[in-house]
Amino acid sequence: MTSGEPNSRLERSEREYARALRTVAEGTTQSRTPATLIPGVYPTFGARGRGAYVWDVDGNRYVDWILCFGTIVLGHSHPAVNAAAVKEIEAGFALPLTRPVQTELAETLVELIPCAERVLFMKAGSEATSAAVRLARLATGRDKIVRLGYHGWHDWSCARGAGIPAAVRALTFTFVYNDLDSLRAVLEAHRGEVACVIMWPCEIDTPRPGFLEGVKELAHRHGALFVLDEIRTGFRVALGGAQQHFAVEPDLATFGKAMANGFTLSVVAGRADHMRRVRDSWFSSTFNTSSIDQAAALATIGELRRTDAIARIWRTGRRLMDGLDRLAAAYGVEAQAVSLPPTPYLRFTYRDPAAREAAKQIFFTETVRRGVFFHPHHHWFVSAAHGEAELAETLEASGHAFQAVRRAIDGGRTLPAAPAAGTLEGGVR
Ligand SMILES: Cc1ncc(COP(=O)(O)O)c(C=O)c1O
């Protein structure tokens, strides 16, 4: 399939999905699969991935800008990372002893991440953010949390209320990105009770000058820790994360996703005095000593340091954003590429929410049918494997997609309603 020929062959994906629904709780291992957001258009089951591409079980090939929600930074199935993981597997990776690769990785992280004096390894991002919140509670002796963004599925951070005890929900508050007054109001309303302000550095908007510094200053003035959740930005925006890019050092930070190019690793990094408090609580999990992921992370970071991968990711992301803006303008579609170039997103800006949702749905339907895998409701991610060919293919498909949106608007046809599952906690809206 090329970007000129819409794909309609998803029979095997749909068969696999129907089969999985009989035994797997949500049919797929993650509810965020785009197929659940625009049913019948996105493939559900994959066959393989290599570099910037994934293939579904029907044999269709896609330029992948989802990249397993940002875990892939060098490209799928990267040979150097795979080789490091295989070497660790062969050494025996599930020992009742700690493998030295752990300390080598810790030393690398302490060298690269501005706030890191000590690190704590975990597996999932949700575990790292939950550990950071626990450390902030230990450091301050306070219970309440102010958060901004998606930090995972655990009780304290889950945006959906069902199944979460009201007593837990009552401890978490939020504020508005780029609006220090909204944070000031929350902190004053809960004076002396807030353990930390935890936030992602970039939403779909980037921080206004002074915003991140202002959050840190307000948090500290109220005796709370400032925690940056770098799980999307880490090892993609800069080797030292968004804290290095924006020159604002948090007390604690969390990393995951890109750090190990798809392998399962997360980390809390921060000031030694706060990190030392791990001994006052319990942060252990059986699989944390498994060292495959640590070996993969060391290899990933080695490649990021050895090459100009991050600079290329910025350039490719910038060209993708500029290209999308140019095409949207050329076809008279109200849309704008937003966020940082390594984690871009396309925001449709129609005032009427129904038109906005419908334009989105047409755009993302047309692009995926032409072999471009964008997420409709989540930051996209750029990898070092994306280059000229992938950009050209993506922009060609996007041109067709903008044209389809324009035609729908010109035809005055009733734009289709967005599916009910159009929002999700991991999303950027
Ligand atoms: C900023 C941020 N924090 C935390 C998480 C949770 O990480 P995980 O899904 O690995 O538990 C995510 C996942 O998307 C994230 O984007």
Bound molecules: pyridoxal-5'-phosphate
What is the radius of gyration? Answer: 22 Å
CATH class of the largest domain: Alpha Beta
CATH topology of the largest domain: Aspartate Aminotransferase, domain 2
Low-confidence stretches: 417-425
**Largest sheet at a glance?**
7 strands, mixed
CATH level-4 homologous superfamily of the largest domain: Type I PLP-dependent aspartate aminotransferase-like (Major domain)
Mean pLDDT level: 92
Our estimate of the beta-strand percent is 5-15%
**Helix and strand sequence:** HEEEHHHEHEHEHEHEHEEHHHEEHEH
Number of helices: 14
Whole-number tally of structural domains: 2
Please report the distance between the alpha carbons of the first and last residues. Answer: 31 Å
> Level of helix content?
25-40%
CA-based shape: globular
Q: Based on the structure, what is the oligomeric state of the protein chains?
A: single chain
The largest beta-sheet arranges its strands as 4-10-9-8-7-5-6
